[in-house]
Amino acid sequence: MLNNRSCLIALLILCLDAVGIGLIMPVLPSLLREMLPVEQVARHYGVLLSLYALMQIVFAPLLGRLSDRYGRRPVLLASLAGAALDYTIMALAPVLWVLYIGRLVSGITGATAAVVASTIADASPEQERARWFAYIGACYGLGMIAGPALGGTLAGLSTHAPFVGAALLNASAFVLACLFLRETRVACGSAEKKQVPPLSSFGFLGLKHLGQGLLGLGVVFFIVQLIGQLPAALWVIFGEDRFAWDTMTVGLSLTAYGITHALFQAFAVGPLSQRLGEHKTLMLGMMADAAGFVLLAFALHSWMIFPVLALLAAGGVGMPALQSMMSKRVVNDQQGTLQGVLGSLNNLGALIGPLGFTQLYSYTATQWNGWVWLLGGCLYVLCFPILWRALQLVD
């Protein structure tokens, strides 16, 4: 019961953090317009987003190691405090360079998702771990639905109001963690623990030192996360180009996807992973996602998007299963290191994916704008032999 309580509190904290992220994303360009000429807004907006991802690539593994050494709770508190400080700085920023300082602080201290995942790995039984990891995705999905809606309402009061709201949400999460979240890290004996050199905690090198077979699983994780950037980067542009969507239709499609994705995460992953096993659930998710991309490439009418949305949402069942598979192959007091490395790889995909996919789309769309979706399907095909080899090493 105590373990479930720790997981639920951690998820509530994550949900508050996700709503805060969703609050500011729609209004950040408007804030920049108050400081910059219109023609410079897009460039600085992209740099601010990339700066956060770059800091996470570097610092997420270090924060993960710190949570293994000193506990999940202090690192989570520092992360929430850093986010609250960032949003406060952005709300009060009189000039552009102050915004950059806020993003640097948030990127350096941003470990909420990794620490929550580590807490769940500490506190959940192995047979239920995929289900709890799926709840992380559901919380982010709900946050990305509620956050922009609330942010748009607050923006009607002031451009700065959503940033104040996000700061208050993270401050509330900080208080919640202080009062109710107990430490979940359990130290292992020295004989059980693998020693990971400090400079080897980054990217694929960190996975290689953590356990056998984790390198291959990490490559699959990175490819899947990279492919996930495809709809994030191109959904709006593709919908406008292929189907002549207006802003309302785009918003409705994104809301439909967010709700469907959250439902699959909340209710499908647990039963599937227990009935099929985690590796089959992962393969099912990859096949559903690949099929969705292929159908999207050839879709001719807007109504065809509905089965695509269902397939893409179903594809989300794979990632919690993969994350659970990896966490079971790491001892308890290195869960933070693992989740930090995975967070770093996720942000690496978020940094290079949108740039690469949008450039490819711009080069190929004049002939046919479905090529980029076929590439996503082909990348999934690449995952299967890597996964098969990694599972052989593990078994």
In words, what does this structure look like?
It is a single chain. The chain is an all-alpha fold and 395 residues long. It has two domains: 1-182, Growth Hormone, Chain: A; 200-395, Up-down Bundle (Growth Hormone, Chain: A), CATH 1.20.1250. It is 81% helix and 0% strand. The protein has helices at 2-24, 28-33, 38-70, 72-92, 96-109, 112-123, 129-155, 161-180, 203-210, 214-243, 247-267, 269-276, 278-298, 305-315, 318-327, 335-364, 371-394. The mean pLDDT is 89. Residues 6-395 form the Major facilitator superfamily (MFS) profile domain. Resistance to tetracycline by an active tetracycline efflux. This is an energy-dependent process that decreases the accumulation of the antibiotic in whole cells. This protein functions as a metal-tetracycline/H(+) antiporter. InterPro entries: MFS, MFS_dom, MFS_trans_sf, Sugar_transporter_CS, Tet-R_TetA/multi-R_MdtG-like.
Question: What's the short version?
Answer:
The protein has 17 helices and no strands.
What portion of the residues fall into strands of 2 or more residues?
under 5%
Find the CATH superfamily of the largest domain: MFS general substrate transporter like domains
Indicate the overall shape: globular
What's the N-to-C terminus distance? 32 Å
DSSP, total strands:
0
Give average pLDDT, whole number: 89
| Derived structural class | mainly alpha
**Series of H and E elements:** HHHHHHHHHHHHHHHHH
Query: Class of the largest domain, according to the CATH hierarchy?
Result: Mainly Alpha
Number of helices: 17
Number of domains: 2
CATH topology of the largest domain: the name is Growth Hormone, Chain: A
Largest sheet: none
Helix coverage percent of residues? over 70%
Rg from Cα: 20 Å
Query: Any guess at the CATH architecture of the largest domain?
Result: Up-down Bundle
Low-confidence residue ranges: none
